[in-house]
Design a protein that fits this description.
Blueprint: H1 11-28, E1 47-51, H2 52-55, E2 56-60, E3 76-79, E4 88-92, E5 106-110, E6 116-119, E7 123-125, E8 129-134, H3 140-151, H4 165-170, E9 172-176, H5 185-213, E10 226-231, H6 232-235, E11 236-239, E12 251-257, E13 266-270, E14 281-285, E15 293-296, E16 301-302, E17 306-311, H7 318-329, H8 343-348, E18 350-355, H9 363-389
Parallel strand pairs: 3-7, 12-16
Antiparallel strand pairs: 1-9, 2-8, 3-4, 5-6, 5-8, 10-18, 11-17, 12-13, 14-15, 14-17
Helix pairs in contact: 3-5, 5-9, 7-9
């Protein structure tokens, strides 16, 4: 490490060096979009109609009992009918290697969800997943383009009208074509690569703004403070949500928070108002996806399946509430749909929190620790996306 005049690590020099290096990188990649001359658009593209069965060979996975395999500690992707996380529900180790799909790149489409995803890696999957292998050479980006074209047809499929291989083979989609009337895979590759670079540059610009306005946090570790148990009811005031039926909702811009485990708990946007309207608060599910919780800095309405947690003795902010959210989620394993996280149990549930010298919750530590984690993730993201722009990732 660099040292100062007394032979100690020269922290100010390291800070200044890294900030200057960051500045130079960000100056290089801070444009919010590509030059018009670099962008590939859909203007002037000739389109043709194709049956999916004419472009792809179809395969299926084999029967795997997902409930009997460890989906957390494995090494190989396990693709299911989930519509999130690129279709990957977990990572497994399976004793029979013949179950492993090694063809890549491919598109997978779930029977009932009809959600298309592109995979460039080996994976396991079950019999309810269609595996589409392109007959012609097609890159990952070209397959992503095709998957998005198919997604425009996704709404016609459901549990009552599954996206079976028979139906998918007949499904027709519009694609760009070349001078011979064939799918223009080269154009699709160029278009998606251009689109990706534009999005990456936008995100680099976003990171630039965040990193330049956020002071560097102190380096903190969880084992450098004392911890103590508190009842949730001693730390938070717990407030109810209020039922708002779908037929009574008026479309608007205000987030409506339901008992969901995704999308930060937002299940709709409404123009309604009621007694549950709140902001700078933690929404905690007692029904639905039990114990899932999300921080809401914005004004929103809360379903009656969601409780509002507001700190009793501190105003709180995004860093403090997100630290507390993580602590509360550690209790999720003990609650289920049949053993709800109701208000009485919420008040009595104990959680461990870092404490100050007086034995009170150390909110300043929570804030600085969370900011440190966020800053670290931003630098990791910046390094990854700069590498993408330079063709190294």
């Amino acid at each position: 490490l660099p040292v100062d005049d007394s032979g100690q690590p020269d922290w100010p020099f390291m800070e200044e060096y890294m900030r200057e290096r960051e500045r130079l990188l960000l100056e290089r990649y801070s444009r919010e979009a590509e030059d018009e001359s670099e962008r590939v658009t859909l203007d002037g593209v000739t389109w043709g109609e194709f049956a999916i069965g004419d472009l792809f060979d179809f395969g299926r996975g084999k029967v795997i009992d997902g409930d009997s395999v460890d989906q957390v500690n494995g090494m190989t992707a396990y693709v299911t009918r989930t519509e999130r996380n690129n279709g990957v529900n977990g990572f497994i180790d399976y004793e029979d290697a013949s179950y492993l799909n090694t063809k890549a790149p491919v598109i997978t489409i779930g029977n009932e969800t009809a959600a298309p995803f592109v995979h460039t890696y080996p994976f396991y999957t079950g019999t309810n997943i269609n595996i589409l292998q392109p007959r012609a050479h097609a890159s990952r980006n070209a397959l992503i383009f095709i998957a998005e074209c198919f997604r425009t047809q996704k709404s016609k499929y459901s549990y009552g009208y599954a996206a079976s291989s028979t139906r998918l083979k007949r499904q027709r989609i519009q694609l760009p074509i070349d001078e011979h009337g064939q799918p223009d895979y080269i154009f699709m590759e160029k278009f998606m690569r251009s689109h990706e670079r534009r999005l990456v540059r936008l995100y680099v610009s976003h990171l630039q703004a965040k990193l330049r306005t956020t002071p560097p946090p102190k380096l903190l570790m969880l084992d450098c403070v004392k911890w103590r148990s508190f009842r949730i009811g001693d730390v938070f005031v717990i407030l109810p949500g209020k039922r708002l039926r779908k037929e009574d909702m008026t479309a608007g811009a205000k987030p409506f928070i339901g008992a969901s485990d995704s999308n930060n708990g937002v299940t709709a946007f409404v123009a309604n108002s009621n007694a549950s309207e709140d902001s700078n608060v933690l929404g905690v599910n007692y029904n639905g996806s039990v114990v899932e919780s999300f921080y809401h800095p914005y004004t929103c309405l809360f379903s009656d399946d969601v409780k509002r947690f507001k700190l009793r003795e501190h105003e709180g902010d995004e860093y403090i509430y997100n630290f507390l959210k993580t602590v509360i989620l550690l209790q999720k394993v003990k609650y289920t749909y049949g053993y709800k996280f109701n208000e009485q149990r919420m008040y009595q549930q104990k959680i461990n929190l870092p404490v100050d010298e007086f034995g009170n919750p150390d909110y300043e530590f929570m804030r600085e620790y969370s900011r440190g984690i966020e800053d670290e993730r931003r630098f990791e993201a910046l390094s990854y996306f700069v590498a993408k722009l330079e063709g190294r990732a």
